[in-house]
Amino acid sequence: MTGPQSNAAQLRVIGDDDPFYVRRIYCVGRNYVDHIREMKEGDERDDPFFFQKPTDAVVPDQGEVPYPPATEALEFEGELVVALGKPLSEASTLDALDAVFGYAAGIDMTRRDRQRECREQMRPWEAGKSFDHSAPCGDITKVADAGHPRSARLRLLVNGDVRQQTSTDLMIWNVPEVLVQLSRQYRLEPGDLVYTGTPAGVGTVEPGDVIDVEIDGLAGLSTTITEGARR
């Protein structure tokens, strides 16, 4: 049993009866060179930066994402997700890997039009990133069972068509480097999730679309976009 309990969001852990209780959700911005070039923003040599999503934005495998209000450009970003099982603060690379409880497939759902407005107005990204149901995440595979996916293939499919494909070894900042950087800004705790960034190929989805994320060695994630409160 990992993370805070009370009313926290929960994710299934493969091989365990006890769930993973989610404490916080951190996301890495721009961690694949091809995505930086695709979005035409930022310097490829920049240090990683982070933003957060609310804990109750988690949507488990086979869950639904209602199309959110205040957007005409709901986009997917397939990502490797790190689940922490130990505290981290001012960590070394070795400490960082030791704190990882497991990994999962995830999607950083984005209101791209709102995100672009925030960027142009030099405002925080919450309107584009931190809305309800914006953090689908699959079942967690424990490091003890599968190790660390250092060069795993990641694919995102929409209605069966491959839209994103990469290898996790193409991340600009790998998992321990991301955790080291993040632990310099926050005290990380058991129950924290870290979405590690997306490759090129992001695009829009509409109600009725089914998004699947596959990462070698991990459980798959499937999410359906449903009618929501778009306006």
UniProtKB/TrEMBL annotation:
Gene3D superfamilies xrefs: Fumarylacetoacetase-like, C-terminal domain
Alphabetical UniProt keywords: Hydrolase, Metal-binding
InterPro entries: Fumarylacetoacetase-like_C, Fumarylacetoacetase_C_sf
Keyword Acetylation: no
Superkingdom to which the source organism belongs: Bacteria
Name of the featured protein: Fumarylacetoacetate hydrolase family protein
Ubl conjugation found in the keyword field: no
Residue ranges constituting the Fumarylacetoacetase-like C-terminal domain according to the UniProt record: 25-225
Lineage start: Bacteria, Bacillati, Actinomycetota, Actinomycetes, Propionibacteriales
